[in-house]
Automatic annotation (TrEMBL):
Catalytic activity: D-ribulose 5-phosphate = D-xylulose 5-phosphate
Cofactor-binding details, from the entry: Binds 1 divalent metal cation per subunit.
Keyword tRNA processing applies: no
Keywords: Carbohydrate metabolism, Cobalt, Isomerase, Manganese, Metal-binding, Zinc
Gene for this chain: rpe
Name of this protein: Ribulose-phosphate 3-epimerase
Function: Catalyzes the reversible epimerization of D-ribulose 5-phosphate to D-xylulose 5-phosphate.
Active-site residue list: D36, D177
Residues bound to substrate: S9, H67, G144, K145, G146, G147, D177, G178, G179
Annotated InterPro entries: Aldolase_TIM, Ribul_P_3_epim, Ribul_P_3_epim-like, RibuloseP-bd_barrel
Pathway in which the depicted protein is active: Carbohydrate degradation
Length: 219
């Protein structure tokens, strides 16, 4: 893909009206719907599972960008593939050496596979895996909740990944997730990010469409 995309996170939506939230995001020009799955073990919060993803599929034609913040993702990917995830991303911290196998399992089902690194994980841990992936998800906050402050040092991971792609002659989507707003959107794109997740910034906006297009277009 590599075109600039805005993926609003529904973690900041009204959970009692999630279908309406994704319909509104589509109307307001979102490119992807970022679905934050939290299991209460990998992170303390519990959000929703594959049944929610399957229900949301009926409310939007946008790709569902499912972010698994779960332990043992290898045992959970089948449910999300069946639910209709278009991108399915898990955490390196949850899989370690098994990550390549999980990426292959996701891709073998025709779903785009993503691997995510939390702020304290060096991006070098996942560079060798990126040829088996469709996307690198750089966490710019500690996973587990929305509305946190952007962690500046994480941005260098996007630059390192782009250098790695150039050196090895291939390219992948680079997504950044957490604390993205009108102030830092231009900077993250300049660092090589092409998919921007934004929960709080989009859902607290008085004009969602304007905010989404600003995040996409700001240089
Ligand atoms: C945090 C989630 C992020 C977060 C983004 O664990 O992965 O997607 O909800 O929300 P904001 O944009 O509010 O930081
Ligand atoms: Zn996320």
């Amino acid at each position: 893909m590599n075109r600039i995309c805005i993926a609003p996170s529904i973690l900041s939506a009204d959970f009692s009206a999630m279908g309406a939230a994704v319909e509104q995001l589509q109307r307001c020009g979102a490119d992807l719907i970022h679905c934050d799955v939290m299991d209460g073990s990998f992170v303390p919060k519990i959000t929703f599972g594959a049944d929610m993803v399957a229900s949301l599929k009926k409310h939007t034609s946008l790709p569902l960008d499912v972010h698994l913040m779960v332990v043992e993702p290898q045992n959970k990917i089948d449910d999300f593939i069946k639910a209709g995830a278009d991108y399915l991303t898990f955490h390196y911290e949850a899989c370690g050496e098994r990550s390549a196998e999980v990426l292959r399992a996701i891709r073998s089902n025709g779903v785009k596979a993503g691997i995510s690194v939390s702020p304290d994980t060096p991006v070098e841990k996942v560079l060798p895996l990126l040829e088996e992936a469709d996307m690198l998800l750089v966490m710019s906050v500690y996973p587990g909740k929305g509305g946190q402050k952007f962690i500046e040092h994480t941005l260098s991971k996007a630059e390192t990944a782009r250098e790695f792609f150039a050196k090895h002659g291939f390219s992948r989507d680079v997504e950044i997730d957490g604390g993205i707003n009108e102030e830092n959107a231009a900077r993250v794109k300049a660092a090589g990010v092409n998919i921007l997740v934004a929960g709080n910034t989009v859902f607290r906006s008085p004009d969602m469409a304007k905010t989404i297009s600003f995040l996409r277009d700001v240089k």
